[in-house]
Each structure stands twice: as structure tokens, then as C-alpha cells.
Amino acid sequence: MAGSTQGRGPKAANGAREAEILGLLQQADGALTPGEVAERLGGALSYSTVVTILTRMHVKQLLTRTPRGRAYAYAPVTDDPGYAARRMRTVLEERPDREAVLARFADGLSTTDAELLRQLLGPEQDPRQ
């Protein structure tokens, strides 16, 4: 097979590669350079591909980067629950009727999740008090 992916794994969608790299960075003890990321991926991606993906993720504000030698070292801006919360907020902000979206979301919650959400939102204040 000709091309730059010869000898590498099958081509994956950008989102899948980003998720794979994000997971790797979240498990790391600290920020990683593109070379360190490529090494931990076991050669599945070329160095230049890793640089491209990390740069895109930085532009999307998924990663921070700090200079380390002649490269940058990348780290996630938040943990996995933080990313899930960001995705939920993004979806909510993209819809014109927030009340309808939140109502449908709440209707779909299990009893356990609904109770957890009530606890997280805090005790209701009686406006008559």
C-alpha cells in the first residue's frame, strides 16, 4: 500500500484519534511532547500527524501547551467529566429554546440521576421565607 500511512494502523476518524490522544494525556503524570505522545501510541501515528492533532486540539481549547526545549508539551485543560460537561453546555448553548432542551433532558433522567441533580443544585429556597 502506498502513502504516508504504510506500516501504520488503519486510518481512523479525526475525532477518534483526538479521543485516543486525549485519553493518553489524561493518564499521563504531566504534559507530554508530540514525540512522547507518538512513542506512547506505539508508532500508530507519525510525528507530524501527532503534531497536527495536538495543535488542532490546542486551537479547540482542549489542551494547554507550554514550551519544552524545541517543542511544546501538551496537557488536557480538564478531566473527562469536565469535557463531558463542556459538551453538554455547548449543545445547550447552540439551541434557541434552553428551557425545552433542559426539560427534555430532565424528563429523560433516571430517578437516581434526577435525585443526584437535585442534590447538586442545592436545597430549594422557599420564596416565602
Secondary structure topology:
Elements (H helix, E strand, L loop, with lengths): L13 H14 L6 H7 L6 H13 L3 E6 L2 E6 L3 H15 L3 H10 L3 H11 L8
Family: Belongs to the BlaI transcriptional regulatory family.
Keywords: DNA-binding, Transcription, Transcription regulation
Protein name: CopY family transcriptional regulator
> What is the tally of helical segments?
6
What is the CATH C level class of the largest domain, in words?
A: Mainly Alpha
Structural class: mainly alpha
Can you count the beta strands? 2
Strand % is 5-15%
Measure the end-to-end span: 74 Å
**What's the SSE pattern?**
HHHEEHHH
CATH A-level architecture of the largest domain: Orthogonal Bundle
Largest sheet composition:
2 strands, antiparallel
Q: Can you tell me the overall shape?
A: elongated
What is the strand arrangement across the widest sheet? 1-2
Tell me roughly what share of residues is in helical segments.
40-55%
Rg:
20 Å
Keywords: DNA-binding, Transcription, Transcription regulation
Family: Belongs to the BlaI transcriptional regulatory family.
GO molecular function: DNA binding
InterPro entries: BlaI_family (IPR005650), WH-like_DNA-bd_sf (IPR036388), WH_DNA-bd_sf (IPR036390)
